[in-house]
Input
Amino acid sequence: MSRRTRWIVFGLLALVLAPVVGTFVYLNVFRSDPPERLSLDDVTTTTAEPGSEDPTDPAEGGIEGTWRVADGSVVGYRVEETLFGQSAEGVGRSEGVTGTLTVEGTTVTEATFEVDMASFESDESRRDGQFEGRIMETDEFPTATFVLTAPIELGGVPAEGEEVVAEAIGELTLHGVTRQITIPLTAKLTGSTFAVGGSVTIVFTDYEIDDPSGGPASVGDDGELEVLLVFGR
Output
């Protein structure tokens, strides 16, 4: 092989490998790690001062009544991505969630939530553009909703700081498609805060969501829906 030919071959190899090497360096050197999964430990709680009469304190007023989504609530997605053969994780979060739940006795009898789909943000503006555009089509489907369809039996009034495990069965409307879904949840009462967290796998085709893959990024058939809801009254 002549010297000129070798330089041509090396040049072609460099062109082929450049995206792979560049992606590896970006993912492993420059790009920050994806956010940890949402956790009840992330919730900032408030506690009534000793001797005060705080009507929202569960110890004083019990858990009955209507609870509303408060500051600190987050809904997110998490998907596995492959960029030029390199594994990565795409995470988007939104604080644009509203809703209420109602407790009668020790049973959650009603719950309805809505999320502003155009409010999701990740660490990549290009991903956010794809999410709002061709993937979730937020102009046509601006919100996602969840409506509880079966009561949740708590079995008793949780003690301060006690975690309660339950399942929420309801209808999730996403991308204009409504399906029944079961979300495993963990709830905790702390001071005047009632927090609920959980996650569930969402299969894209179940909600008529086109393949999210695009350009150099390849995405699987499903993603993870994460929720962390903080309630007050």
Q: What stands out?
A: Residues 116 and 143 are 5 Å apart (CA to CA). Helices lie at 3-30, 58-61, 125-135. Confidence is low (pLDDT under 50) at residues 8-30, 46-59.
